[in-house]
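Support case: 1,3-dihydroxyacetonephosphate complex. Customer-provided input:
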Amino acid sequence: MSAPIPLIAGNWKMNGAGPALAEASAIAAGAPAAGVRVALCPPATLVERMSRALAGSPVELGGQDCHAQPGGAFTGDISAEMLADAGASLVILGHSERRAGHDEGDADVAAKVSAALKAGLEPIVCVGETQAEREAGQALEVVTRQVRASLPAELAGRAFTLAYEPVWAIGTGLTPSLQDIVEVHQAIRATLRDMFGQAGAAPAILYGGSVKPGNAAEILALPEVGGALVGGASLKAAEFLAIVEGAPRA
Ligand code: 13P
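Agent response - structure generated as follows:
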């Protein structure tokens, strides 16, 4: 099976209002048409407007979370169907800021993945160890456990993406050594093959955590690194496009 097409996805987190759409339009204008996938995941309030800003461009659009239910009495929540209706085709699930700040466990993430699949969204499922877990030598064990428990069986044969984001590397300017990134990505790939057989070779495994134009190319060239999930550096078109530029082409 051929290597997955690299994906560079920008996670805007709780940043960006109307004026930020100019950055999305600039990204749409500068994104390559083939060889690498480019995606933006803005806050929910911008999804529909951004779908118009990206129309006709190769840039894909995603949400940052969804509820496990398609609808109902869940004040403040957004369903996968609603994201799809607003123009999204992807959704980030299980980000560490959701796991830590909203008490989401692996079973919650797995339920959301199922909901995303039902709505026709491609899930980007995030995993990653805390600093304490890495210092205790538990990074591989934690990440492997999260992969196994966050991915429901019905993902077999469906399009999805993994993102390895060490919690201590997010927004800190710190990154793991290149060797540590490869080690974790290889462990994730082995787990995917164990869970899904041959189909476990298909999903791209993104790295996320302080990816910048200055370090992206060397990280993206590593074995089993199939792209990046970019936070802060995705808010400015010039920085984000510089990262995209450094990605290997399929
Ligand atoms: P930073 O790139 O700002 O470290 O954020 C990474 C991240 O959490 C992307 O989901």
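The domain at 1-13+84-228 is CATH 3.20.20.70 (TIM Barrel).

Case will auto-close in a few days if no follow-up is received.
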